[in-house]
Design a protein that fits this description.
The protein has eight helices and 19 strands. By secondary structure, the protein is an alpha+beta fold. The strands form six sheets. The chain has an eight-stranded antiparallel β-barrel. A two-stranded antiparallel sheet has the order 1-8. The two termini are 36 Å apart.
Length: 314
């Protein structure tokens, strides 16, 4: 029997369920989603679990055996809705007529990791469009429970950072942020590159996407990847940090075609740090802070949480 997100919830005994709802998500970036179909959830009056009663778009009910269940549902218009992607979104944003089981009975971060792992690598980038900003923030919160399990805490979203693949020296990630004040408002969809150097250190920079015009005008945004176990302003756990510093970073080697390091423009030159948590294979979330050069300056969040998914096309 296929384990789905609905297995983690008990239906509320009352009041009666709300009328059927149909959620859709249209992919606005063909380069990221390769014209994948729109996503639709089953309505709140029918769940996918066991011999479930399935209702799609207010259609007729039908009993579905777990042995006959396919990895996707056919929508009324003929498109496909992948169940593994639905599970991630539903777990982060459960229907109002469902309540979670006792959180102490399972680790939410472990479950989220497993559901992301269930999505084939070539489709994980679709999470960038399926997860709205508030769900990215929710993923950051859930990822905090990963550190309660020592075995799970040792997992990494990157081969390069975990040293599992000695041949990997460059990784590209597609990223999404909820934006923020200028110039962070440019940072909605962009890419980041992570690369290792012969001195054993790891660096990265933001590239392309909605940042392209900004980077062309103000220079590259290089950062150092450092092992950090705590978000300084909140004292919450994390896996690592991207420290922007002054932008030069004593960086003497970088991938071919990358620009020469230059000093950062404001606010990236004001002690900006992005703290990172791994939430699944090749998927992580980040929280950006402007901590300030002045010791008396109160750190503030630079923007909303950001989602980062490895790009398989590079």
């Amino acid at each position: 029997m296929r384990l789905t997100t609905h297995n983690l919830y008990h239906p509320l005994p009352s009041p009666p369920p709300p009328p059927p709802r149909l959620f859709t998500c249209q992919f606005s970036s063909p380069s990221l989603c390769h014209q994948l179909p729109r996503l639709s959830f089953t309505s709140s009056t029918g769940q996918r679990c066991g011999n479930a009663i399935r209702v799609v778009g207010g259609g007729e009910r039908s009993h579905v055996s777990p042995w006959d269940e396919k990895p996707y549902e056919i929508l009324p218009r003929g498109g496909k809705s992948f169940l593994d992607e639905q599970d991630v979104v539903t777990f982060l944003d459960p229907p109002m007529d469902l309540i979670p089981l006792d959180p102490s009975s399972y680790n939410p971060a472990a479950y989220l990791w497993k559901k992301i792992e269930d999505i084939p690598e070539e489709r994980r980038h679709c999470l960038l469009h399926l997860l709205q900003p508030r769900l990215i923030s929710r993923a950051w919160e859930i990822a905090g429970t990963r550190y309660e399990d020592p075995k799970l805490a040792r997992k990494s979203a990157s081969n390069l950072l975990s040293s599992e693949d000695d041949e990997t020296s460059l990784e590209i990630y597609n990223c999404r942020s909820s934006g923020g004040p200028w110039p962070i408002a440019w940072m909605k969809f962009f890419k980041k590159a992570i690369f290792s150097c012969s001195n054993g250190k790891t660096y990265g920079r933001f590239i392309g996407g909605t940042l392209a015009k900004f980077l062309h005008s103000f220079g590259p945004l290089y950062f150092a990847v450092t092992d950090v176990v705590e978000v300084m302003p909140t004292e919450q756990p994390c896996d690592l940090a991207y420290e922007f510093r002054d932008g030069l970073l004593d960086l003497f080697e970088y991938p071919q075609g990358f620009p020469t390091p230059a000093k950062h423009p404001y606010p990236f030159n004001d002690q900006v740090v992005i703290y990172v948590r791994h939430i699944g294979p090749r998927v992580s979330v980040g929280q950006a802070w402007q901590e300030g050069k002045d010791l008396q300056q109160v750190p503030r969040k630079l923007c909303g949480e950001m989602l980062m998914v490895k790009d398989l096309t590079d």
